[in-house]
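lol forgot to send this yesterday, sorry. struct tokens for the thing we talked abt
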């Protein structure tokens, strides 16, 4: 009765209005949510690296702009952390909706003396190369933190090195309650972004409330994922595969249909590191699709066994794939999700939730028409446009603005496209096997 505007249809009209003061709990809840949203925007800003790593900064900013146009309803909630770590291989939970199609659990990264040394070194390298942006990092991806019984020790190291305690999301808070309590205690002591428990059913919700007190749950957001819940599932990973299977069989289960406008659960624009496999990938969110079924694009991949291999792997990916300005030697075309419409001395680009109007009056030939043809490199395009004496600087400036706006296609490489988690696992096995047999480093040196 104290929060009717939150749930009763006849009272919804009072929400966010002065009359809502009659229901103080509803007002408090809405203020809490507003604060969470403000905090989310601050997190995105924390990944700023303009001085410490300008190449990475320019690349991430472009990905943020692209995502704002391309990800639909998911865009606002993506904070683009610059690094994430997996401390296990696979996941024991096996949620039917897993947007990352986490594979079968194969083991966890123990906190042995040797591993702890490498781990502290790896976090130290991230902190040294990316400065305070390393504070956006977290320690799960297609894994559940509670599958690693030493998870809290890794977290504490991260806190000591970067000054920030990584946020935790788990769907298995009851699996090892002593571990969950140690993680909550770290939160109580050092504070961090609100932790999250994914609640898989009503029974699970009741069990969580029975196991943890309201005080313990004060820093935990309960994400209701059960089939009775209204939380939308992203159109990526297993939820997408399931949707397509049901669609093919003409069977829809309305309670379990992922929303097409919720396109991905991936959030990192930067590095994804699996400590057990010694693998680091450069990734960025994209809508789940046949090309990128897991809702993120893999730009490059590198394997490491030592700290110096880790450091050189990061550096080579930055040098080879994070361009500060438009690369002259690569084909130039608009992003494949954009619709191009030519106008008189201007053109429009339309995406899922954005529209750009671009003035295109530098030369008699249209810059937009040449880009949309997609059959020349940036330097060839500049030569063609400026053949009649048009200013090179003006054309370069226009291309630079388009590039920074994130409308020029950067996804030009098919090597990692259309892969499922099974393909990734077999590629890692093959790489490990080759390295073992040959006794050589299998770092990606492309
Ligand atoms: S959603 Fe999370 S907990 Fe569930 S299977 Fe995927 S990684 Fe595991």
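and heres what i got for the seq, position by position
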């Amino acid at each position: 009765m104290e929060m009717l505007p939150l749930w009763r249809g006849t009272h919804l009209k009072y929400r966010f209005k002065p009359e809502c003061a009659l229901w103080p709990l509803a007002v408090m809840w809405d203020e809490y949510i507003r604060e969470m949203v403000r905090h989310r925007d601050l997190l995105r800003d924390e990944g700023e690296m303009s001085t410490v790593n300008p190449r990475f900064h320019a690349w991430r900013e472009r990905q943020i702009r692209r995502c704002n146009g391309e990800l639909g309803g998911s865009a606002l909630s993506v904070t683009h952390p610059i690094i994430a770590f997996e401390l296990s291989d696979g996941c024991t939970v096996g949620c039917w909706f897993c947007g990352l199609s986490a594979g079968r659990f194969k083991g966890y990264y123990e906190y042995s003396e040797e591993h702890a040394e490498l781990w502290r070194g790896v976090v130290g390298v991230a902190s040294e190369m990316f400065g305070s942006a390393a504070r956006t990092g977290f320690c799960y991806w297609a894994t559940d933190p509670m599958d690693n019984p030493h998870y809290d020790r890794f977290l504490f190291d991260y806190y000591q090195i970067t000054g920030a305690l990584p946020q935790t999301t788990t769907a298995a808070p009851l699996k090892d309650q002593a571990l969950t309590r140690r993680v909550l205690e770290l939160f109580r002591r050092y504070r961090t972004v609100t932790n999250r428990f994914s609640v898989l059913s009503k029974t699970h919700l009741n069990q969580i409330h029975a196991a943890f007190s309201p005080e313990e749950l004060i820093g935990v957001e309960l994400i209701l994922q059960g089939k009775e819940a209204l939380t939308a599932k992203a159109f990526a990973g297993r939820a997408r595969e399931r949707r397509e299977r049901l669609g093919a069989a003409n069977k829809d289960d309305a309670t379990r249909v992922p929303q097409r406008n919720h396109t991905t659960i991936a959030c990192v624009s930067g590095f994804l590191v699996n400590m057990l496999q010694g693998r680091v990938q450069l990734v960025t969110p994209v809508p789940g699709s046949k090309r990128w079924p897991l809702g993120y694009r893999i730009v490059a991949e590198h394997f490491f066994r030592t700290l110096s291999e880790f450091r050189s792997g990061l550096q080579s990916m930055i040098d080879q794939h994070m361009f500060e300005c438009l690369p002259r030697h690569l084909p130039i075309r608009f992003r494949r999700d954009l619709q191009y419409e030519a106008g008189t001395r201007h053109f429009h680009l339309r995406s899922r939730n954005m529209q750009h109007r671009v003035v295109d009056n530098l030369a008699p030939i249209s810059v937009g028409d040449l880009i949309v043809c997609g059959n020349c490199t940036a330097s060839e395009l500049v030569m063609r446009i400026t053949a009649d004496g048009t200013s090179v600087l003006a054309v370069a400036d226009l291309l630079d603005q388009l590039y920074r706006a994130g409308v020029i296609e950067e996804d030009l490489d098919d090597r990692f496209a259309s892969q499922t988690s099974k393909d990734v696992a077999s590629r890692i096995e093959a790489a490990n096997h080759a390295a073992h047999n040959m006794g050589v480093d299998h770092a990606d040196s492309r």
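The chain has a mean pLDDT of 90. anyway ping me if u want another try
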